[in-house]
Design goal:
The chain has about 80 residues and is of the alpha+beta class. It has a single domain, classed as GIY-YIG endonuclease. It has three helices and three strands; from the N terminus they run ββαβαα.
């Protein structure tokens, strides 16, 4: 199982979308500043998750949430 997730920075106006097979570990890495892309925006709160049966489907869903339409919906969830 893969999960597509969206996290929102608590300190800046920033939303990150990604996919993982271990959500807890991945969120910990983001919040501890281990990820180069998100390090300047930590800490984060989880705002959205979606389970996918395989990596291909998860990647398709991740692309949607990173698109303009998907990002607008995430901003409303924030």
């Amino acid at each position: 199982m893969y999960k597509v997730y969206a996290i929102s920075s608590l300190s800046k106006n920033y939303i990150y979308v990604g996919l993982t097979s271990d959500l807890d570990k991945r969120l910990l890495r983001h919040n501890r500043g281990y990820e180069k892309t998100t390090k300047p925006y930590a800490p984060f709160k989880l705002i959205y998750t979606e389970e996918c049966s395989d990596r291909k489907l998860a990647r398709t869903r991740e692309k949607y949430w990173k698109s303009g339409t998907g990002k607008e919906k995430l901003k409303l969830m924030k």
